TrEMBL record:
Record keywords: Membrane, Transmembrane, Transmembrane helix
Organism of origin: Dactylosporangium salmoneum
Domain (PAC): residue spans on this chain: 256-307
Transmembrane region(s): 20-38, 44-65, 123-139, 145-165
InterPro entries: Biofilm_reg_signaling, EAL_dom, EAL_sf, GGDEF_dom, Nucleotide_cyclase, PAS, PAS-assoc_C, PAS-like_dom_sf
Name listed for the protein in its UniProt record: EAL domain-containing protein
């Protein structure tokens, strides 16, 4: 039997036609037997023989024709069978002259049977033989048949032959078209990624598509309800049975979808999506149509995306999102019993130096090794996560504060162990912040975000206390952060309300005391605390990044003031304005463009602007610093190194910097008349400036002795309280008004 349901329908059709033809033959024989019994005299043996022949024909109906119809020998047997029936009909009619009228009816039944199974040529052949037999019977009759009756009978038989031949031809064309459609459907199903089954409510699998072999690896003929249950994963068997019951009982057209795991023929378990539609009321299907699709690749992708969303790619540990989720679950789990939750944040000290000096591969190796060392110090129930960069988080339940401190010591000791990165041995340290809380505190327990914030504050406290240590959270830390936030907000409001102002301190020519320039110094006119010096707000502005907009504002104010002095006083044409650049401002990406824009807007001569950079700043990322200095120099401004002598620049670096001025730090000037070493250092700076063809400016000159000593050492310019304190622009205007050109 064919596995294809559509072919099975054709087999059933042919078998039914054979049985129908058999019953027709039985009917014709029985009609003849009745004729013999009623009209023939004697011959009961002939009637018995005919009844026996009819019984033999009827017995053929019981044969399993579905098994035989696809055999190659059957068409030949059928032709022989029809030929024998036609010969018997012809012999019977020849013997019984009165049966001639029954001959066309018998022929019609035989031709109708052949049209359902034979080809149109074979039908025409039987029709021609029937007509020829009829004509032979007419010609041999004792009582002649009228020509009109014979002609009409022949015409009728020819018409029946033509109709049956056309029927056979049309059937053949329809069969060919149907087989073509079937082949297309079979090809589509065979190459489909879905296995399609038709399963009756009782569990009988009435159809299995060829794609079952592709999707599941099984022969479609093997697919039974028992097989389906056997290949379903035990964890999903009960769910699958409930799903099947829902499909069967859901009513006509009901569709349900489910995911399950099944075993392929080779033994591998795969994920499948199963879609079932109830077609139990549709004839002749009367089954539920089940589509099975392999979704293993999709499930693996989903699992990988989930892993990436909740796991760190380098270490495989939970990331920030998953750690936050576990923290929330830990709080909920311990809420009723009032258990203690301990959170530790671990941040490696100076990790950036490892990346910058040894490369990012070494940095990744350090992160991975640190993660392993931290994991080795924890219990199986503890959670270790990487929050990002060089920061780790540890969640520990049910330990005391003393035990948390002991854990902190163990973690620090593990991190301190030497580690070989490439061909270098490195010793690292870390700062750890520890925060604890009882899960039963409050209605909902501690807030996860607040606990993380507390541990973060404690970690920064550990860094501020010298690093390589841990610190327990103290509420005073939060108060300090809040105070810093309020101060930052105050600075932001001060910028918005123009509460800052610029004071200017004269820079003079030491031999003549002539004004040659001024240094712009920012002050804060606080509405409550009065005039504040830079030490009260510059460190905060530097740490928060507000120094960038503040420094930009100072630069603009100083340039605009210089433009006003130039327009009002002829003597201003020769003075210069020194403006300090902070580290954050110098590293700001748009610094050069901002300076160029302000110079263009104010119209000042770039040669009158001196930008001061600290010596320590110059030594950070030297190549990038030289590039930025070169771009500033290209604008026409002059560059000065402030606080020179307090840093660690070497002569080889110093000669690479395109600077114009060295400013001697006031710490050397303070002891220049009392400390021989300070005088020696000051003289060395002056001589270095001469060797490099740089101007020198001494800061913080407060006594005449300092002034005299600096002149004797050859220092060209100076500034300090001896000459003038920083003051408003009007004080400089007075000096410029009294100056002679």
């Amino acid at each position: 039997m064919s596995d294809n349901a559509l072919e099975q329908h054709e087999i059933d059709y042919r078998a039914r036609q054979i049985r129908l033809g058999t019953w027709i033959a039985v009917a014709v024989i029985l009609i003849g037997a009745v004729r013999v019994q009623l009209d023939w005299h004697g011959g009961p043996w002939l009637v018995a023989l005919m009844v026996l022949a009819a019984g033999g024909q009827a017995a053929l109906v019981a044969l399993p024709w579905q098994r035989y119809v696809t055999s190659r020998w059957l068409p030949h047997v059928m032709i022989a069978w029809w030929s024998v029936n036609l010969a018997l009909l012809l012999g019977f009619t020849a013997y019984d002259a009165a049966a001639l009228a029954l001959y066309p009816a018998g022929v019609t039944l035989i031709l109708a049977s052949t049209s359902a199974l034979a080809s149109n040529r074979e039908v025409i052949g039987f029709g021609a033989a029937s007509v020829a037999g009829y004509l032979g019977l007419v010609a041999t009759r004792d009582r002649p048949v009228t020509g009109t009756l014979a002609a009409l009978t022949v015409a009728l038989m020819l018409g029946v032959t033509w109709f049956c031949a056309r029927t056979a031809s049309n059937r053949r064309r329809l069969d060919a078209a149907r087989r073509t459609a079937e082949r297309k459907i079979e090809a589509l199903l065979e190459n489909s990624s879905d296995a399609v089954l038709a399963i009756r409510p009782a569990g009988d699998v009435t159809y299995a598509s060829p794609s079952v072999r592709t999707a599941l690896g099984y022969d479609p003929a093997m697919m039974t309800s028992e097989t389906l249950m056997d290949i379903t994963h035990p964890d999903y068997l009960a769910t699958s049975m409930e799903w099947w019951a829902a499909v069967v009982n859901g009513g006509p057209g009901y569709t349900a979808r489910a995911e399950s795991r099944v075993r392929r023929a080779e033994g591998a378990w795969i994920w499948v999506e199963v879609i079932g539609t109830n077609r139990c009321d549709e004839e002749p299907l009367n089954a539920a149509v089940i589509s099975i699709r392999d979704i293993t690749a999709r499930k693996e992708l989903e699992e990988e995306l989930t892993r990436q969303a909740f796991a760190d790619s380098l270490t495989g540990m939970p990331n920030r999102a998953l750690f936050r989720d576990r923290l929330e679950h830990a709080i909920a789990r311990n809420r009723r019993g009032g258990g203690r939750i301990t959170l530790l944040l671990v941040d490696l000290d100076d990790f950036k130096l490892v990346n910058d000096s040894l490369g990012h591969n070494a940095g990744d190796q350090l992160i991975a090794t640190t993660a392993l060392r931290l994991h080795q110090q924890l219990r199986a129930s503890d959670t270790l996560a990487r929050l990002g960069g060089d920061e780790f988080a540890i969640l520990v339940e049910d330990i005391s504060e003393i035990e948390a401190m002991d854990l902190g010591d163990r973690l620090l000791a593990a991190i301190r162990r030497p580690l070989r990165l490439g061909n270098r041995e490195v010793v690292c340290s870390a700062s750890i912040g520890v925060a604890t809380a009882k899960a039963g505190e409050g209605d909902d327990g501690p807030d996860p975000g607040e606990l993380l914030r507390n541990a973060d504050l404690a970690m920064y406290a550990a860094k501020g206390a010298g690093r390589d240590r841990f610190a327990l959270f103290d509420p005073a830390m939060y108060a300090g952060i809040m105070r810093e936030a309020e101060e930052r907000a105050e600075v932001e409001r001060a910028l918005a309300r123009d509460e800052f102002l610029v004071h200017y301190q004269p820079i003079v020519d030491l031999p003549t005391s002539r004004l040659i320039g001024v240094e712009a110094l920012v002050r804060w006119e606080h509405p409550v605390r009065g005039l504040l010096g830079p030490n009260t707000f510059i460190p905060l502005a530097e740490s928060t990044g507000l120094i960038v907009p503040l420094g930009r504002w100072v630069l603009r104010q100083a340039c605009e003031q210089l433009a006003r002095w130039r327009d009002e006083f002829p003597a201003a044409a020769g003075i210069r304005v020194n403006i300090n650049l902070s580290a954050r401002q110098f590293q700001h990406e748009g610094l050069v463009e901002e300076v160029a824009g302000i110079l263009a807007e104010t119209g000042v001569d770039p040669r009158q602007i001196v930008l001061e950079i600290t010596e320590s700043l110059l030594m950070q990322d030297t190549d990038s610093t030289i590039e930025t200095l070169g771009r500033l120099k290209a604008l026409g401004v002059r560059l000065a190194i402030d606080d020179f002598g307090t840093g660690y620049s070497s002569l080889s670096y110093l000669k690479r910097f395109p600077v114009d001025i060295l400013k001697i730090d006031r710490s050397f000037v303070d002891g220049i008349t009392t400390e021989r070493g300070d005088a020696t250092l000051a003289e060395a700076v002056v001589q270095l400036g001469r060797a490099l063809q740089l101007q020198t400016v001494a800061e913080g000159i407060e006594t005449a002795e300092q002034w005299s000593t600096l002149q004797s050492l050859g220092c060209e310019f100076g500034q300090g309280y001896l000459f003038a304190r920083p003051g408003a622009a009007e004080a400089i205007s007075s000096i410029l008004g009294d100056a002679r050109v």
